[in-house]
Amino acid sequence: MKIDKEKIIIDLVYLWVDGSDPVWLAKRNAFIGDAETTSSANCEGRYINNDELKFSLRSVEKYASWINKIYIITDNQTPDWIDWTNPKIKRVDHKDIMPEEILPCYNSGVIELFLYKIEGLSEHFIYANDDMLINRSVSPDTFFTDEGFPVVRLTRKRFRRLRWFWREEIRKKPLHNYSKSIKTASELVKQKYGIYYSGMPHHNIDAYLKSDCRRMAEKVFKTEFEAMHYNRLRSPEDIERIVFSYVALAEKRGVLHYCSKKESLYIHIHKDRHYKNLGKYNPIFFCMNDSQYAQDSDRRKSTLFLNKLFPEKSQFEK
To answer: Which partner from 11, 17, 37, 292 sits 20 to 30 angstroms from 47, CA to CA?
Structure first.
């Protein structure tokens, strides 16, 4: 049965943290210990605030003004430049959607398991990290099919399972946490549905159905998700959120779409040549990825770059 995509309500959800906030830093370091902050999984680049959210919201207003509500999930923090009187935007604290016993949590993978619990969230929603931006006009059918199912964007990796087997079993070299979490998601879906998806996340804005996320969290993978709840930092035992999309495909409640750099582009802010790719490929989406390899000078360059792309204030700014 087809739906009228002009009438469906689509909300947008972000995770946001200001890793420069001394209060937040003190709380985090008291919990995890300073030694952990140098690891790639918990480095400064994972948490530092480069004002990407401001520019992402500018891109949303420019290219996706039809978005209904925007929810910003934070850890008892508030971006001070946001105009919270705007009825279109709302702050959601971790404690509003997550059980008290698993807080504080510094693992975005765990937080993402609870998105469906946002009060008032629409059935159809899209989700982004604050460093994900829109580069061209998009419409509801960019994210959802005529039947109202998510468009699942993946990057094609034909021999991913074999390569990872070679790495782990032949070379005896463990996978990085991120790859391990994707492998776990793939294996869970294979065990449950008999289908193995080798496509990788495109690392940009993705579409979901709230009811499907709830069903997976509370029924399909209830035991597996609950075991992950106490991974307060990124862990090899995590399950990547791609599991929601793999299940949507397995249940035929999502449509697979492999994308290239012309659609979804990943920019490492410390690599100058990556900036040129935005003009070269002119993608729909792009991500400004910070990491343990980036320096403060790279972050300043990234902010200047984004300000040139989106110089005008959005309605969400004071």
So the answer is: 11
